[in-house]
Design goal:
The protein is mainly beta. The chain has two domains: 42 residues, no CATH class; 43 residues, no CATH class. It has a three-stranded antiparallel β-sheet with strand order 2-1-3, with no helix packed on it. It has a three-stranded antiparallel β-sheet with strand order 4-5-6, with no helix packed on it. β4 and β5 form a beta hairpin.
Amino acid sequence: MPIYTYTHLEDSSCPHAPTFDWQQVARDWPLTVCPYCGKPVERVLSAPLVKKKNFNSELRDKGFTKLVRVDDGIFENVTRRPGEEKYVDRRKPETFPKLEKTIED
């Protein structure tokens, strides 16, 4: 469920003034009064949380291998390391990524 931020419209002795966070279902109507003190409140517009996308080099540095399909049975290794093939052919095991280089005990 999303968490919304509300602000008091009047001076209030509420311990949650001037703002407080409230968790509610997105389809619920916004609160009009503070659930703690009963004074009028309004929902504050805030930026949504956006997850940062991982770049291929970050994936490689974290030990992941990312293959992107190019053709039937042919994949491009976009996280290749030195000594690895650019394209992986499922019919040719010698083109497979060298996972023993990235897996450590």
